[in-house]
Design a protein that fits this description.
Number of helices: 7
Distance between the termini: 75 Å
Largest sheet: 5 strands, antiparallel
CATH architecture of the largest domain: Orthogonal Bundle
CATH class of the largest domain: Mainly Alpha
Structural class: alpha+beta
Low-confidence stretches: 1-33, 375-382
Shape: elongated
Strand content: 15-25%
């Protein structure tokens, strides 16, 4: 036999009187009032929460062993079972707490080969929730409590919506109208932006405002904002283009100056070469010193070097001018591409906004129509008829039950509330 060591163990002499006292103590320990006591014959379902306590009377030792390893809180899982240590998954859906307690005792005795069967106490600590749907102010999931009726359950969800139908429809209309006002203002802003983009693409200095936008209350403010933005963008673009233009003028001036320097150096080179040739001729006849010949050749070589440097600098300046032309073309292309992308994004936002605006207008019309229906209720002829239906699980299958305000609600029930106009 496997021994389970626990912190609580009651030891005593196995006398008849003491045995009786210990048995009574065990029963007292395992006793407890469960929520299920208010629902005789209640069968467990998924999401029910259980509190389990287990103890064992050991006849031979005259002691009580407390199975604290197993005692604790459990929840019936989606599979419909409860996972108990040493026993494993135990089917729980459709069973009572007494049946679960009996199964735990039998399972432990069988698992460990115990002489005395452990006693288990299974209490229902929390019922599975109920659900409200339909004409309820706040539909959703709510906790179950004993003695819950349909009327009490509706109070958890704030009552039925038909009770204040007129006010609700008015709120719906106001909310939809508020959304429509915001969307209309946004639409006007996007349309004015589109007109500004069209003006920039066409190279215009002014924005053409269509009659549709001229009628808007905020038309002047929108136009002033877009014109200020267009002016700022235009100034920025002009500044960048002017900077490139100034750079090209400066480079062109440098090229021209280098060209004049090249002409001067070319003439100097011709004179230096002529002087060098004359000195060489005289040196061959013995009329000039060798040092003068070397000096003439050095002077001609220096002029050639300066001329080469000048040509290189002129070539670099011309390449910089070409680069500035490319930068100008890139700047203009990027500007056009940016305008085209902004136009595409604006059109997309306008389409999305139009869909939202249509939805808000439809909601407004629906709220007006429903409000009219509610206001036309004649106390002498028509009234609002509220009907309740409970959808309850019956052996794994949903079952609909017609109910009234005083019908008892069970854990896991779905309460559907519907309302309609009816003749008195």
């Amino acid at each position: 036999m496997i021994e389970i060591q626990t912190p609580r163990k009651f030891v005593g002499v196995a006398t008849p009187f003491r045995c009786t006292a210990l048995v009574l103590l065990s029963l007292c320990m395992l006793s407890g009032r469960s929520y299920a006591d208010n629902l005789p014959g209640y069968h467990l379902g998924v999401m029910d929460k259980l509190h389990i306590r287990v103890a064992e009377w050991q006849t031979a030792e005259g002691t009580i062993r407390d199975w604290s390893t197993i005692s604790g809180d459990y929840t019936v899982g989606p599979s419909g079972s409860v996972s108990v240590p040493f026993i494993g998954d135990m089917p729980a859906v459709g069973k009572t707490t007494d049946e679960i307690a009996q199964a735990i005792g039998v399972g432990l005795q069988k698992q460990f080969g115990l002489r005395d069967r452990p006693s288990a106490s299974v209490e229902l600590s929390q019922f599975r929730p109920i659900y409200l749907a339909g004409e309820v102010q706040n539909p959703g999931q709510y906790p179950f409590v004993p003695n819950l009726t349909v009327l009490k359950a509706l109070s958890l969800g704030g009552g039925t919506r038909r009770a204040d139908a007129g006010q609700r429809f008015a709120r719906d209309f106001i909310n939809a109208k508020g959304d429509a006002v915001v969307l209309m203002a946004e639409r006007g802003r996007l349309l004015m932006r589109k007109q500004r983009l069209l003006a920039e693409l066409a190279g215009k200095d002014q924005i053409d405002v269509p009659p549709e936008l001229q009628k808007l209350p905020q038309s002047a403010d929108l136009l002033a904002s877009e014109e200020a933005l267009m002016k700022a963008r235009s100034v920025r673009m002009s500044t960048q283009l002017q900077a490139l233009a100034d750079l090209k003028v400066l480079l062109q001036s440098e090229v021209e100056a280098l060209g004049k320097k090249t002409d001067t150096l070319s003439r100097q080179l011709e004179l230096a070469k002529a002087d060098r040739d004359k000195v060489e001729s005289l040196a061959e006849k013995g009329l000039e010193l060798a040092s003068r010949k070397i000096s003439a050749e050095q002077r001609a070589s220096d002029v050639e070097t300066n001329l080469l440097d000048t040509d290189t600098a002129s070539l670099n300046a011309k390449q910089s001018i070409s680069k500035a032309d490319q930068d100008e073309a890139t700047l203009r292309n990027d500007w056009q591409n940016s305008l085209a992308q902004d136009m595409q994004d604006t059109d997309t936002q306008l389409e999305t906004l139009q869909l939202k605006l249509s939805t808000s207008q439809s909601l407004m019309q629906e709220a007006v129509a429903q409000s009219a229906d509610a206001s036309n209720i004649d106390p002498g002829g028509q009234d609002v008829k509220v009907a309740y239906t409970i959808v309850r699980d019956d052996n794994g299958q949903p079952k609909e039950i017609q109910a009234d305000e005083n019908t008892q609600v069970m854990p896991g029930d779905l309460i559907k509330v519907s309302a309609a106009l009816a003749m008195r």
